[in-house]
From TrEMBL:
MF-aspect GO terms: ATP binding; hydrolase activity; nucleic acid binding; RNA helicase activity
The keyword Nucleotide-binding is annotated on this UniProt entry: yes
Keywords tagged on the record: ATP-binding, Helicase, Hydrolase, Nucleotide-binding
Family matches, as Pfam families: DEAD, Helicase_C
Record-given protein name: DEAD-box ATP-dependent RNA helicase 53, mitochondrial-like
Domain Helicase C-terminal as annotated: residue spans: 344-488
GO cellular component: cytosol
Matching InterPro entries: DEAD/DEAH_box_helicase_dom (IPR011545), DEAD/DEAH_RhlB (IPR044742), DEAD_box_RNA_helicase (IPR050079), Helicase_ATP-bd (IPR014001), Helicase_C-like (IPR001650), P-loop_NTPase (IPR027417), RNA_helicase_DEAD_Q_motif (IPR014014)
Originating species: Punica granatum
Domain DEAD-box RNA helicase Q stretches: 110-138
Domain of life of the source: Eukaryota
Family: Belongs to the DEAD box helicase family. DDX21/DDX50 subfamily.
Residues in Helicase ATP-binding domain copies: 141-315
Chain span(s) of sequence motif Q motif: 110-138
Length: 490
C-alpha cells in the first residue's frame, strides 16, 4: 500500500514539475541562472508523490527507507541467458578468443533482445542503435546478474558503462515494478571526473528513464542536489569529493545501496581520490555487489580489491597482451623541433581528421591558451583547462559535441573522463608524463569499435621516452616525416 502511494502519477507530473521548479528557484537565489538537474526538467520525479504520505511533511521530511532488505543484491535470480554464453574462467583472465570461437557466443548470442532483461531497457537501447553487446558487456552480464563482485579490466573505449549499467538498471527496474519505489539510492557509481560522471548518468537516464538518477559533482550548487536527494533517487553517480560533502551534510543516505561501481578506478588514484573512495566504501552496507572497472591495475586497486570486494571474479579483456588501446586506433609519431611543433598541427588536422573532431593535448594551461589562440586564426578552435569556469567548460564541451567547432586544445587534468563521440584524431602536442596518461589520451578516439588516429609529436631528445611508451603500451608508432607532410599539403 505504501509503495503504491510512491508510484509516479503521469497525469500530475507536469504540474508537479512546474511547482517544484518554482519552489527550487526560491531556494537558489544565489545562483538563479543554474539549470535544474535533468530529473527535474524531464518529469522523472516519481518520488514527489511522497508529499501525499501522512507521515512525511513537505520539504525536508525525515529520510526513511522503503526498500526491503534481502540477501544478495535485491535477492535477484539471474535470468536464463544461454544465448549469451560467456567464456570466463572463474578466478582467471577472460579469453576473448574463446568467445569468438565457442558455442553460442557468436553474433546471434550477442543480441540484447534475447537476454531476458527488462523490455523498456531493450527498447531504449534499440532507439540508440544498440542491439548487440560488445565483448566486455557480454562477459560481464551473466556474473553481474548473479550478484558476483568483479573486477573488469578493459581497454579504454570498449563500452564499460553499459557493461555494469545494464545489469544494475535491469535489477532496479524489475524490483521497483514489484515493490514500488523508495527514497534512498540503491546504486552508487563513483567516477574520477565530473565529465565522466555526467556521461555515466546520461547513459543511465537515456537507457532507463523510468529510474530516478542524479549526477553530483563540485562546481554546482550543492543545495539543488540535496533537494533532489531528499525527494528520492534510484541511482547516484558522482565524484568522490562531492559524495563526501553530501554525506557530511546528512543529505545522502547509503544504508540501502545494493550496487557500487568504481568506473575508471585507476584515474581515481591519479586525481588524488584514494582516501575519499575508501571512506565512501566503508560507509556502505556489507551486503552489496561491488564492481570495479579500469584500464590498468595499479597496486592501490589491488589493495581495494582485497579489502572491499568479496571473492571477486576477474574479467580481463587485456590479459597477457600489453596492448592497452582499443583496436582500430592508428598510431603515428612525428619528430619536430620545439619551435616548429605548432606549425604542423594544422596540416595534421587537415590530413588525418578530414573535417572531423580533433583533441590536441598540452601539458600546461598556458600552452593550451596560446595554441588555441594561434590556431583560431585559421580553424574553429577552443581551449579547455582548469582555469575555465564550470559554466564555460560545459558550454565549450557542448559546442565541441555539437560541431560548433572541431578542434579542442585541452590539458590532461581538464580532459580526464571526457567521452566525446566520434573524435577522429588525437594529437599529443607534448609527451604525456606516463604511459597510462598516453592510453587515456589516445582512448578519446576509436571508441566503441570505431576507427581513430593518435599522433605523437616529439623532439629529438625525447626519442627514448617514445620507445618507453611503445614498450609499456605494447604498440608501435608509424613515423611520419615532417618535411614530407608539409610538402604534400602546401
Amino acid at each position: 500500500m505504501m509503495r503504491a502511494i510512491l508510484r509516479k502519477s503521469s497525469s500530475s507530473s507536469a504540474a508537479l514539475r512546474r511547482t517544484l521548479a518554482a519552489s527550487l528557484s526560491s531556494f537558489e537565489t544565489a545562483a538563479p541562472s543554474a539549470e535544474l538537474p535533468r530529473s527535474f526538467m524531464n518529469g522523472q520525479i516519481s518520488r514527489f508523490s511522497v508529499f501525499g504520505r501522512p507521515d512525511v511533511a513537505p520539504g525536508w521530511g525525515a529520510v526513511k527507507g522503503f526498500h526491503a532488505a534481502a540477501s544478495g543484491p535485491l535477492n535477484f535470480r539471474a535470468s536464463v541467458t544461454s544465448s549469451a554464453e560467456y567464456a570466463v574462467d572463474d578466478y582467471a583472465s577472460y579469453d576473448e578468443e574463446k568467445v569468438a570461437k565457442g558455442g553460442n557466443s557468436g553474433e546471434e548470442g550477442l543480441e540484447i533482445a534475447k537476454l531476458g532483461i527488462a523490455p523498456e531497457i531493450v527498447s531504449a537501447l534499440a532507439e540508440k542503435g544498440i542491439t548487440k553487446l560488445f565483448p566486455i558487456q557480454r562477459a560481464v552480464l551473466e556474473p553481474a546478474m548473479q550478484g558476483r563482485d568483479m573486477i573488469g579490466r578493459a581497454k579504454t573505449g570498449t563500452g564499460k558503462t553499459l557493461a555494469f549499467g545494464i545489469p544494475i538498471m535491469d535489477k532496479i527496474t524489475k524490483f521497483n515494478a514489484k515493490h514500488g519505489r523508495g527514497r534512498n539510492p540503491l546504486a552508487l557509481v563513483l567516477a574520477p571526473t565530473r565529465e565522466l560522471a555526467r556521461q555515466v548518468e546520461k547513459e543511465f537516464y537515456e537507457t532507463a528513464s523510468n529510474l530516478d538518477t542524479i549526477c553530483v559533482y563540485g562546481g554546482t550548487p550543492i543545495s539543488r542536489q540535496m533537494n533532489q536527494l531528499n525527494y528520492g533517487v534510484d541511482v547516484v553517480v558522482g565524484t568522490p569529493g562531492r559524495i563526501i560533502d553530501l554525506l557530511k551534510r546528512g543529505a545522502l543516505n547509503l544504508e540501502e545501496v545494493k550496487f557500487v561501481v568504481l568506473d575508471e578506478a585507476d584515474q581515481m588514484l591519479a586525481v588524488g581520490f584514494e582516501e575519499d573512495v575508501e571512506t565512501i566504501l566503508q560507509r556502505l552496507p556489507k551486503s552489496r555487489q561491488s564492481m570495479m572497472f579500469s584500464a590498468t591495475m595499479p597496486n592501490w586497486i589491488r589493495s581495494l580489491t582485497k579489502k572491499y570486494l568479496n571473492n571477486p571474479l576477474t574479467i580481463d579483456l587485456v590479459g597477457d597482451d600489453d596492448q592497452k588501446l582499443a583496436e582500430g586506433i592508428s598510431l603515428y609519431s612525428i619528430p619536430a623541433a620545439m619551435q616548429g611543433k605548432a606549425s604542423i598541427i594544422g596540416p595534421l588536422f587537415t590530413e588525418h581528421a578530414k573535417g572531423g573532431k580533433c583533441i590536441v593535448f598540452t601539458q600546461t594551461k598556458r600552452d593550451a591558451d596560446r595554441l588555441a589562440y594561434a590556431m583560431a586564426r585559421s580553424y574553429r578552435c577552443e581551449a579547455l583547462h582548469g582555469d575555465i569556469s564550470q559554466s564555460q567548460r560545459e558550454r565549450t564541451l557542448a559546442g565541441f559535441r555539437d560541431g560548433q567547432f572541431n578542434i579542442l586544445v585541452a590539458t590532461d587534468v581538464a580532459a580526464r573522463g571526457l567521452d566525446i563521440p566520434n573524435v577522429d584524431l588525437v594529437i599529443h602536442y607534448e609527451l604525456p608524463n606516463s604511459s597510462e596518461i598516453f592510453v587515456h589520451r589516445s582512448g578519446r578516439t576509436g571508441r566503441a569499435g570505431k576507427k581513430g588516429t593518435a599522433i605523437l609529436i616529439y623532439t629529438p631528445d625525447q626519442t627514448r621516452a617514445v620507445r618507453v611508451i611503445e614498450r609499456d603500451v605494447g604498440c608501435r608508432f608509424t613515423e611520419v616525416n615532417t618535411q614530407a607532410l608539409l610538402h604534400v599539403l602546401f
